[in-house]
Amino acid sequence: MRLHRHAALLTAAIVLCLPLIACRADTRDVAVDRYDVAIVVLPDGALEIRETVALRALAPDAQFVRDIPRDRVDQISELVAAVDAGAVGGSSQHLQVDVPGARVVRSRLENGRAETLTIRYHLSGALEAQGPRGLLRWSALPTRRPYSVAASRISVSAPPAAIFTAGPLINDGRTPASRDARGLMAELSSIDAAQLVVVSGEIDLGGTQVVEPEWQVNGVQAWRLMPAFLAGGACLIVIAIGVLVMIRLHLVNSGLAEVGQLAVRKGLGQTGCVAIALAILTAATVRLLLSHLGIWPMAMPVGLAVMGALFIRAAGRLRR
What we know:
Elements: H1 2-21, E1 30-41, E2 47-57, E3 62-67, E4 75-83, E5 95-98, E6 103-109, E7 114-124, E8 128-130, E9 133-139, E10 149-157, E11 163-170, E12 178-180, E13 183-191, E14 198-204, H2 214-253, H3 257-291, H4 299-319
Parallel strand pairs: 1-10
Antiparallel strand pairs: 1-2, 2-7, 3-6, 4-7, 5-6, 8-9, 9-14, 10-13, 11-14, 12-13
Helix pairs in contact: 1-3, 2-3, 2-4, 3-4
């Protein structure tokens, strides 16, 4: 019965963390002949990005998925897509545009057929504030993509009154590009699936000061709280170890050597299950803390609840 309760506790912890590690359907059986990306910096510091992808299905029921990164932006809006010469808009047959999830899925591609997928979206708070200027850093091509790209044109342009005071560059200057203070243009070929294509630069918006985006503010606050968070976690671990030692000493001093050894072995086995659950919850808490300060408190009560359950069970053993 006790084993079942601990198994249920571990299962609950894993289920609570599934949203952090769950995998969704990804691109499959698709060749990308061309992937062009045009990045336009707007006068208010927002970005308007247009992606044009030439696809070719390699098998029946092929699928292409574009997940737009959300970790260094405040908001993704105006997400629209179109296939070939179709009107740019929202979802249609075999084309799903998930605006809240920042995801575009082109499904059921016809085997051997080539088509062009156009994706356009608006990024607010995508420039990191560096004094009055903004730092641009954006992965032009999807990271961790399962496909190579035969050819790509990458372009970056600044608004009329703005200039790049540093860069712009691709992969910190390791990838050749034609550039000036107004932007850049690069023609790439034979891009491996593991190769990153990151555009970066420092831009002066011409009198308009770049305001710190929310994700940058949250990141600074998270790093300030990190020492306290780690210290609290260390204290909880020390307390848990102390409780286990007290249980063992209590059983040994009671003269029930054989029963005590059996109970300790069972207790350690049960504690192992709880330790796994705590490890998962701690990893989830750290990830949420670093990614977005406004979300991590949802994981903290769960971790404290599991630790509290361990203490309650330990206290019950001491009373017995």
